[in-house]
Design brief:
Layout: E1 2-3, H1 28-44, E2 52-53, E3 69-72, E4 76-79, H2 93-102, E5 107-110, H3 123-126, E6 127-130, E7 135-139, H4 146-156, E8 159-163, E9 180-182, E10 186-189, H5 197-208, E11 213-216, H6 219-223, E12 230-234, E13 237-243, H7 244-249, H8 252-259, E14 263-267, H9 270-273, H10 279-282
Parallel strand pairs: 1-2, 4-5, 7-8, 10-11, 13-14
Antiparallel strand pairs: 3-4, 6-7, 9-10, 12-13
């Protein structure tokens, strides 16, 4: 996780991120306080957090590191090309160096040079990865180049399932991870936002065939970031980390279904959410084995 010091709503991404709201005044201190609250809450339930301070002044979205790198079982790390020019400055090799020091890293596959060819694949924002079914779910956008998606899936042994998704106003969903969250036994998905009914059924069926309880989210719940949750391993079992805004949008039956499989951990991040991302976007997950 990256602690923001110059947080603001990014003007370079506002055109295609319908979840984003313009910053009013200096919001950096509020965002930093929210970040520290999240780190404390995660550590409080036994989740390991490696937090880094943002050292740049021109990286307003640095709090969302899951877009520029991901880790994978077997010791693999991917580094991704970003769509917005100022987001390309977020990549930090000291983060990768820490992973190599603390965990068993076999290789780092760096796709970021493809930015020079105007190609982007924004990590686990553009892709929602089902590590059990080995499926990469992707809402089509210019942040998820299809050629690069195929290359990633070949390198990391995922099957790509791409689809078009639009919000209630007909705007394309900019990142797949605001549309769906895939846990071990439960999945939250804005199925109605997937435009093609056959693709919609395919997504639901592929998630269900691995034994997951598939919870359909409404367009309003997606707008409230209910799809931008993440399942984590805590001291006492699985944790579903989600913003309190998103949790408030869920109905009691949906909450009960989640709680049948994971403890819900609500987090308060209203300032950070103005940048167009929520809890899932703040966390780059660790799927690597620790060194002795």
């Amino acid at each position: 996780m990256i602690r923001p010091h110059h947080f603001r709503s990014n003007p370079e991404t506002q055109a295609d991120n319908a979840f984003q709201r313009a910053s009013v005044g200096d919001v950096a201190e509020a965002a930093r306080a929210e970040f520290d609250h999240v780190v404390t809450a995660l550590r409080g339930v036994g989740i390991t957090v490696h937090d880094f301070d943002d050292t740049g002044t021109e990286t307003p979205d640095s709090v969302f590191p899951n877009n520029w790198f991901s880790t994978h079982a077997g010791g693999h790390v991917a580094v991704y090309p970003m769509y917005a020019a100022n987001r390309r400055r977020e990549r930090r090799w000291d983060v990768i160096d820490l992973l190599k020091t603390r965990y068993r890293v076999q290789d780092v596959i760096d796709y970021s040079g493809l930015e020079h060819d105007d190609l982007a694949l924004e990590g686990t924002g553009a892709m929602v990865l089902d590590h059990i079914g080995r499926v990469a779910y992707v809402a089509r956008s210019h942040r998820a180049d299809p050629i690069l998606l195929e290359r990633f899936c070949t390198n990391f042994n995922f099957e790509p399932i791409a689809f078009d998704a639009h919000d209630a106003q007909g705007r394309p969903v900019y990142h797949t991870n605001v549309l769906m969250a895939v846990g071990t036994k439960v999945a939250l998905v804005g199925l109605d936002l997937i435009s093609d009914s056959k693709r919609r059924d395919m997504v639901r069926d592929r998630l269900a065939e691995t034994g997951r309880d598939v919870i359909a989210l409404t367009a309003h719940q997606i707008d409230e970031f209910a799809g931008n949750a993440i399942e984590l391993d805590g001291d006492d079992g699985l944790i579903m980390a989600i913003s309190d805004r998103a949790l408030a949008a869920l109905d009691p039956d949906q909450v009960a279904r989640i709680e049948a499989h994971a403890r819900i951990l609500p987090l308060t991040i209203p300032t950070i959410e103005t940048a167009g991302g929520s809890v899932r976007c703040m966390i780059a997950g660790l799927h690597l084995a620790r060194r002795n």
